[in-house]
Structures are given as C-alpha cells and as structure tokens.
Automatic annotation (TrEMBL), chain A:
It comes from the Bacteria. The gene is korA. This is 2-oxoglutarate oxidoreductase subunit KorA. Transmembrane segments: none annotated. CDD domains: TPP_PYR_PFOR_IOR-alpha_like. Its EC number is 1.2.-.-. It holds the Pfam family PFOR_II. One of its GO terms (molecular function) is oxidoreductase activity, acting on the aldehyde or oxo group of donors. Residues 283-495 form the Pyruvate flavodoxin/ferredoxin oxidoreductase pyrimidine binding domain. Residues 44-234 form the Pyruvate/ketoisovalerate oxidoreductase catalytic domain. Keywords: Oxidoreductase.
UniProtKB/TrEMBL annotation, chain B:
InterPro entries: 2-oxoacid:Fd_oxidoreductase, THDP-binding, TPP_enzyme_TPP-bd. GO terms for molecular function: oxidoreductase activity, acting on the aldehyde or oxo group of donors, iron-sulfur protein as acceptor; thiamine pyrophosphate binding. Its EC number is 1.2.-.-. Residues 56-203 form the Thiamine pyrophosphate enzyme TPP-binding domain. It holds the Pfam family TPP_enzyme_C. GO terms for biological process: cellular respiration; small molecule metabolic process. It is an enzyme of class 1 (oxidoreductase). This is 2-oxoglutarate oxidoreductase subunit KorB. Coiled coil: none annotated. It comes from the Bacteria.
Length: 638, 343
C-alpha cells in the first residue's frame, strides 16, 4: 500500500464519527489461506499471553497452527529496552503447515524497541499495528531512535501502518473500575488482541472464558480485561483506519478430536501415558532449568496417575534420584537442558553400567555454558551421544514437533524398559514451547510397555544372577522387596551373569561389547526409515529434531518446482534405522541442515563414509523455509 | 489360625553375602559391618525389604558384603540415590553407608538436603579423617595441621564438624559412636534403624593404614571414659572412670566442666534428646576432644513428618480426591475441537 493511502486512513480515523453499523457494512472481508502474526512488546506487556490466546482461538476454530514464542532470558528486563523485547509468532492456516512461518504478515509492536527489533521480519506490504502512545521521547531513546519512526514516511513506506493510541483507548475503556493507571495499562495486550481478533474474524469467546476463569477472584480486573478486549475489537470494527479484514477458513485436518499441545506438555502426557498403560508408577526427579521446567510443572499436577515428583537440590541429585527410583522398579525420568545434562553425565553412566531403565529428556537450548537459555538450538547431539566417560553407548531418539513429543516420550519408555537401558529423548526450546494441534488418540490404540519384575531366581541353585541375559541381551529387572532375588549393583565393572565385581580383562571386553551390541538389538525393534519424495535422485536432505517442519516444507517447495529433492527426517539417531545407509546411497548429494555446527553431519559421515554437506545455523532461531530452499538450489546448481 | 505367618527368625549370618571382604586387615570397617549384621535381625524386617546404598570410598564397599539388596554407586551421591529409591518405594528400609570424604566433601550438598527433608534414611558415616581408597590425602574432617600426601607441610583447611552440620541441616536423629566400642555402636545403630526419619550416625573409624590411632581417645579402654561423655536421655552429663566429673552450663550459656564434689547433681546439664530446638544438641556437638570431653551417643531424636511419607500422602490424597488418573479425560482436557469428515 502506498504512503498516500496510509495518510488518508489516518485522517479518516481522526474524523471518524459516523455510526458504527454503516461503517461495518462497508468493510471488505478477504479470504486468505495462511497468516503469520507476531505480537511483540516489553517482556511485561503480556505478549506471550496474547499470542497463546490467539493460538487457542485459532485452534478451536479449526485452523492448523504453529507457534514460536521468543522471549528474553531476563524475566522483567528494563521497560522499553531493546533486549527486553518479548515476541510470540504464530502461523494459522486452512492448509497443513509445519512451521510458524518465515515472514510476518501482521506485526503488532507495543513500543519502539519492539518495532526496531522486529520490523525486519515483516514482509513488504505487511500490516503493522503500533501502539503510538508508547512512542514517546523516553521509549524512543531506549530503543536508540534519533527521531520518531512513525513520523518518518520513508521508514515505514513499505508497510500498511496502523497507528493506534492503545494506551489511551485502553485507559478510557476501563475507566470507572477503580484501577490504577498501572493496572489499566496492563490491559492493553487485550486491546491489541481484540483488534487482531477483529482483523482476522476470530471468535473471542474462548478468550473471554479464559479471562473469567483466570480472574474470577478479581472482578474489576476481569471486567477491565474483557472491556479492553472488546474495545480493541470495536476499534477495528468501527474506525475507518481498517478497511479490510480477513478470514482464514478451517483447515482440512484429519477428522477427529483435537487439542493444542506444546512439546513440554506432550512429553509429560506421553510419560504419564506410558506409565499408566504399563500399570506402573512414574518417578520424576528434576531440577528447574529453562526450557525444561514445564515438564516438572505438568507432571507434578498429575499425581493421580501414579506420578511421584521430586524437585532435587541439583541436577546431579535429580539424575541419581532417578537411578535409585529405577532400582526400586519405578519408571524413572528426568529432564533438563544442556548445562544440566552436562552435570548428569556421571549419573547417566551409572545407569548404563547397571543397565537400569531410565529416560533422560534434553530440551536443548543455545550453548555453550549458560549460552542462550530461552533460544533454540540442536547443539547437544554430541553431548548426549558421546558425553560420558568410558565407552558408554546409549539409545538416542528425537522428537520432531510438539505433538510428536507425545509419541516419542512413550517410545523412550519402551526402549528403556524393554532393553534395560537409560535412553535420551532430545527435544529443543522451539518444540518444547511451540504449540500445534494434536489429534487426541484413542487410549486403546496406544502401545502398552510390558514391565516384568521376576519373582523367581534364575540361578539354578547358585543364587540370583542379575546379569544373566535373554536373547536380546536384556538382564532381569529384579527389584527390592522380592525375596530370594537380593543382589547388589554398582558402578564397578561386573561379571556377566553373576554381577559380582570383576577386574578380569576378558570380562571387561565382553561387557563393553555387550553394552554396544544392545544398541544393535534395539535397531531391530525400531521402524525402517521413511523417505518423503523420490526414492532416488539428485539430493537427499537429512534432518532431525525440531527442524522437521521447515525442512519438510522446503523440500516440498523444491519438488513443486520440479526438483529432485527427497527428505529423510530421523527420529532415531542411536541406533540409526537399519536401512539408512542404503537410502543414502540412492542420491547424488546429501545435505544435512542443523541448528548446530554440523554434529549429525559428522556422525553420518563417520558412520556411512558419505560425502554429505552441512548447513549450519546457530542464531538461536529456527530455520526459515526460504533459506533452506536457497541452500537446496545452490547444491543442485553445483 | 493354623498357618504360621510369623517372620522367619534371621541371624547375623543371614545377612552376610558370599563375597570375600577386601578391606585391609584390622580396618575399623570390619567391626561396623559386624555390628550392623547383629542389629539387622533385631529389626523384624524381612531381608528383601532392606537396601544398602553407598557412594565411593573404602566404607562404600559395604553393600557388597551384605546379603540384602544394595547399590555401590558414585562418589557423594548415595543420599540422592537413596532419596529416589525411598520416595518411589516408601515401604523399604534404606541405609546409606558413606565416609567423611563421600558425605561431607563431594556429596555435602546431598547430605544436607536429605537431612533437611527428613527422608526416612539411616545414614551411617564412617569418619576416619582421611581419604583411604585414594591412599592417604587429607579429608574435610582431618585436623588442622595434619600431614598427609597432599599436605606435606600440614593441612591449612579447617575441618568440618559432622554433627554440627547434621544438626544445622535439621536432622531428626543425630548420634556418634566408635568402631570398636561394640556395645555402644550396636545400641546406637539399633536406635538409628528404629528412628522414623533421617538418622545421621557418625562412627569414628580407624584407618590403620593411613591414619592409625586417630580415635584412641575414644576407643582405648584406659582413656575413653576420661575423654568421653556417654549421653543418656534424661540423665545429667557425668563422666570419668570414677564418674566424678560433670558438665553444667555457665552464666554465659557455655558448657563448664565441674567436679561433682563441688556441685549438686541437679545443677548439671541434663540431656534431653527430644528438644525440638536444636540448640542443646548443637552445644553438645561443639564439645570436642581434646578441648573438652566429647559426648558420644544419641544427641537428638525428634519426630517430624518424613519427606517420603508426605509425598506418599499427597499422592494418595490426590487419588482419593480426584480418582485414579483417566487418560481419556487427560487427553480431552483444555480447549478441544472436532474436525468433521468432509462430506
């Protein structure tokens, strides 16, 4: 839209006194397939809440949704500062989507710092809604603006700009409720939300219900938020500043009942499901860490499912409490992120040598060290694959999306219990906090892990043999309380069979081999790798973890342009699916995009001697479909 | 009733494993192991319901020599492992066997938190004031000036007082004994085993290879009664071979050694294990030989809800009030929507 039309719409706003009905009738409703919205403001502005509410109403309406919360590590960074900007991006669509979108269609910026840090992602011609009241001298200074960008035509010429005095209008809307100015101003996220609800024809009922349940004890706050929401909606409806609004029809998802889940919620539900269906108790030992803490929060609410949670004194106590609980016969789980996983290494190794079933969830974030706590990355692959002393192999699986966390958490439990081993489940900040629709499964159709605790000795009169193995090299999970099966485990190398301490050289060689061969046995139990796209051809793109959506979308886009590009997304990393090597041999080139410096790339090259190409991004942000397409094109041109 | 439902009577031998004991000859650990085997049959607990968890160090080999369930784990982490086990299986009787390095140096954090939570664990810490398994470095309880392999010019580290740590952390049972003081050790271990909640027992243990004779003051027949006060609940603090000396509290609140002929018995400090306030126990823990006679026995034994018991209670309350978890209901909670098949 030209700058002229922006000017005229502003003038009209100032003059708008015409009755509401006649205006609304004149407003055009356009149908679009997919929209990307980003709400951004101060970390105290309630942008995560606004984004989550928009996601909920869109999901309930029937759109496919994908979200990307992006917030600073500081809980309340100084107001107005550039580093204190918190954003929530979501894509909602009438077709299938796999990412929260590359470019933003509508950007809601609550202050100058938010505008400055987010404008570059708004597509040319996109809609920009700003709270013009926040563009005062102080806030402009904090955002390092020399002059007000809203007054500069050239600065925003490429966008459809809507300057809305949100602070003032919100205060007006809540007047008479006895709120302080500060309290009144905290409602302006609901004003912004209401406005965007109008813009995209959303039904605000689910949000109204949420406000009523959340603020039931504070009637004036409840009323203020509802009024702000309505005022925002009516502002779009009645003022001539907004001449067009949009609808995004419901998506054609598979028939069934859906709800929205984040990755962390899905991990918690998957663990509870596995435990319940195995008819056993779940023990969760954890220490608070971003972005994994929500798993602890979710599980601690679910005690009625046979869940015992333990907030440990540190990461080491968390993992070792899990060792103790596993010895006791519980399904024992911990979750953390990079720094915590680093501390857990020795405890995990103890679980490996004692061959106890345990699940360790690593919700990856930017590293090294404290790194980027609230940003996503895939850089713990080496840490989890190799990061223990000694030869210490462990199964490693990775979820590909928020909803997939549900299935993969159950799969982690299955491998742990059926093969008596600690298992790593990798997720990341992007899928842990991101949300998508989840098709609610039928309980009867879910896999039941079989937990077996022997009651009888296996020793033929020689006493119980804790390391006597079955055909899968699995030892019995005998637990305290069982008469006659008393035995001692430990971190010292033990004799195969009896489990007694052994320094025998040949026994150590044997036990090291067995621990490794167990992985081969696990490979027999996992599904073959599937390929999306041509069975052979010019390029195979391999991805793992949370980059699934972006890579899948990029490969599909390339195929639509007639290119020979296949996609292989790995959920099993250690062991690899048995047919992976054969798949690799069918393509001329292999590309491995990762949000790290090429960790899977090195493992694939070492494992298969294939001259794969790495694409590395470590910016704390997910891949854009566009940048993947460019890399694919570049490789195909070579 | 014709069926005999009583527990089989177990003896000391029933608690010995088939493993050859590999401590150095004359190590104090042998005596502690023997007393433990004496105590266990008195508890009336089936062998399969007892678990010994240890960390790393000479003392931590202990579980291998017991015929119960056991785990020889990693350095310092036994209290955390035992906490996980006890929370998952509150009906088990769980002992932690640890040493001064394991419990107070690398594992200090876990010890403190197990005690403040009052997890129902019996923690027996063998204190030999030396790192024995790594062949003789000073430990967090070695006295100032101690010459060892890593402190050839004498240690400049001030030692920790294990009982003060335990009392400060909120331990509900705190006691001290010595390896070869057989009767005393047996009675202390028995009291600890029967305590509901965290029990912390420090056992003076002679490392005859790297720190021989460190505790002669408390173990030698001709010395111990002059150097130690054997605590008895409800009784005044009296000691000495002739039971001619006692402890009273002076005007400033400090312990004062007195000769019994000079004071009335009623003016002496009386021992009370059951005071909730830790001041009394802490004051006793501060009395260390050679500056003063050193108390031995049970310093503190109070009742408080256990962590594992409370976790279990919440868990059962949730099931009682909300019903056993229903997966279908869980999946269908929150905002849900229906996608209809295209007609």
């Amino acid at each position: 839209m030209s700058s002229e039309s922006r000017e005229s719409s502003e003038q009209e706003t100032a003059e708008s006194e015409t009755p509401v009905e006649s205006q609304a009738a004149s407003k055009e409703l356009q149908t679009v397939e997919s929209v990307v919205i980003r709400f951004c403001g101060d970390s105290g502005d309630g942008m995560q809440l606004a984004g989550t509410q928009f996601t909920n109403v869109s999901a309930v309406f029937g759109n496919d949704v994908s979200t990307l919360p992006d917030f600073p590590a500081e809980i309340r960074a100084p107001a107005g500062s550039l580093f204190g900007v918190s954003g929530f991006q979501l894509c909602f669509s009438s077709g299938d989507i796999y990412t929260p979108g590359d470019e933003v269609d509508t950007l809601v910026a609550m202050n100058p710092a938010a505008l400055k840090t987010n404008l570059a992602d708004l597509k040319r011609g996109g809609t920009l809604i700003v709270n013009e009241d926040a563009f005062d001298k102080s806030n402009l200074g904090k955002a390092h603006y020399d002059s007000n960008p809203l007054d500069d035509e050239s600065e925003l010429a490429a966008y459809r700009v809507h300057k809305v005095p949100m602070t003032r209008l919100t205060r007006d809307a809540v007047e008479g409720l006895g709120l302080s100015v500060r309290e009144a101003d905290r409602c302006k996220n609901f004003f912004a939300l209401g406005l965007v609800y109008w813009l995209y024809e959303r039904d605000s009922k689910p949000t109204e219900e949420w406000v009523k349940s959340k603020f039931g004890k504070y009637p004036s706050v409840l009323e203020a938020n509802l009024r702000a929401l309505k005022a925002g909606y009516n502002f779009g409806f009645s003022t001539e500043q907004f001449t067009v609004h949009y609808e995004v029809p419901a998506a054609q998802l598979q028939p069934g009942k859906y709800r929205k889940v984040t990755g962390n919620e899905a991990v918690a539900m998957g663990l509870v499901t596995a435990a319940k269906l195995a008819d056993t108790e779940l023990f969760y030992g954890g220490y608070p860490i971003t972005p994994a803490s929500d798993i602890l929060h979710e599980l601690s609410k679910l005690k009625r499912f046979g869940v015992r949670t333990f907030q440990a004194e540190d990461e080491i106590a968390a993992i070792t409490s899990v060792v103790g609980a596993a010895f006791g016969g519980a399904l024992a789980v911990t979750a953390s992120s990079g720094p915590g996983i680093a501390l857990k290494g020795e405890g995990i190794g103890l679980g490996v040598i004692m061959e106890l079933p345990m699940v360790i969830v690593d919700v990856q974030r930017g590293g090294p060290s404290t790194g980027l706590p609230t940003k996503t990355e895939q850089s713990d692959l080496f840490l989890t694959y190799f990061g223990r002393n000694g030869d210490c192999p462990m199964p490693l699986i990775a979820a590909r999306s928020p909803a997939d966390c549900f299935a993969m958490a159950q799969e982690a439990v299955r491998i742990a219990v059926e093969f008596m081993t600690p298992v790593f489940l990798l997720t990341d900040g992007y899928i842990a906090n991101g949300a998508e629709p989840w098709k609610i499964p039928e309980v009867d159709g879910l896999y039941r892990v079989k937990v077996r605790h022997p009651k009888e000795s296996n020793g033929n009169g020689d006493g119980f043999q804790p390391y006597l193995r079955d055909e899968n090299l699995v030892r019995p999970w005998a637990i305290p309380g069982t008469p006659g099966l008393e035995h001692r485990l430990g971190g010292l190398e033990k004799s195969d069979g009896s489990g007694n301490v052994s320094y025998d050289p040949d026994n150590h060689q044997l036990m090291t081999q067995i621990r490794s061969q167990k992985l081969e046995k696990i490979a027999e139990s996992i599904p073959d790798q599937e390929v999306d796209g041509p069975e052979s051809g010019d390029l195979l793109v391999i991805s793992w973890g949370g980059t699934y959506g972006a890579v899948k979308s990029a490969c599909a886009a390339s195929r639509r342009q007639g290119k020979s590009v296949a996609h292989c997304h790995l959920q099993y990393i250690h062991p690899f699916p048995k047919n992976l090597g054969e798949i690799l041999s069918r393509y001329k080139k292999v590309l491995i995009p990762e949000l790290n410096s090429g960790q899977l790339w090195i493992i694939i090259r070492a494992h298969f001697l294939v001259d794969a190409v790495s694409m590395s991004k470590v910016k704390g942000k997910p891949f854009l479909i566009g940048e993947l397409c460019s890399k694919i094109d570049e490789l195909l041109e070579d | 009733m014709s069926a005999d439902t009583s527990l089989p009577v177990l003896t000391q031998k029933d608690f010995a494993s088939d493993q050859e004991i590999r401590w150095c000859p004359r190590c104090g650990d042998y005596s502690i192991l023997a007393q433990m085997k004496k105590v266990l049959p008195t508890l009336g607990i089936p062998r399969e319901n007892i678990v010994f968890v240890s960390g790393i160090g000479c003392s931590s080999r202990f579980p291998y020599y017991m015929s119960t369930y056991g785990m020889h784990s990693i350095h310092g982490r036994a209290p955390a492992i035992a906490t996980g086990l006890k929370v998952a299986r509150p009906e088990l009787t769980v002992f932690v066997i640890t040493g001064d390095g394991d419990a107070l140096s690398i594992g200090g954090n876990h010890l403190m938190h197990a005690l403040r939570r009052n997890v129902d664990l019996k923690i027996v810490m063998f204190n030999n004031q030396i790192y024995g398994l790594t062949k003789g470095q000073y430990s967090p309880t070695s006295p100032l000036g101690k010459k060892t392999k890593s402190t050839p010019f004498g240690s400049v580290d001030r030692p920790l007082n294990p009982l003060s740590i335990a009392i400060s952390a909120g331990a509900t049972f705190v006691a001290r004994s010595a390896d070869v003081d057989i009767k005393h050790l047996t009675s202390v271990l028995e009291r600890a085993a029967n305590h509901k909640g965290s029990a912390f027992v420090e056992v003076y243990q002679d490392c005859n290879v790297f720190n021989s004779g460190a505790f002669e003051f408390a173990t030698k027949k001709d010395q111990k009664e002059e150097n130690c006060i054997y605590l008895e609940h409800g009784k005044p603090l009296i000691y000495g071979k002739a039971r001619d000396k006692g402890v009273r509290i002076d005007g400033a609140g400090n312990p004062d050694i007195v000769t019994l002929s000079d004071v009335k018995e009623d003016d002496l400090l009386f021992h009370d294990e059951t005071i909730d306030d830790p001041t009394h126990a802490f004051r006793l823990a501060q009395m260390r030989w050679p500056d003063s006679p050193e108390p031995m026995g049970v310093f503190r034994a109070i009742e408080r809800p256990t962590y594992d018991g409370e976790v279990d209670r919440q868990y059962k309350d949730c099931i009682a009030s909300q019903g056993s978890g229903d997966l279908d209901k869980l999946f269908n909670s929150g905002d849900t929507w229906e996608v209809k098949a295209k007609s």
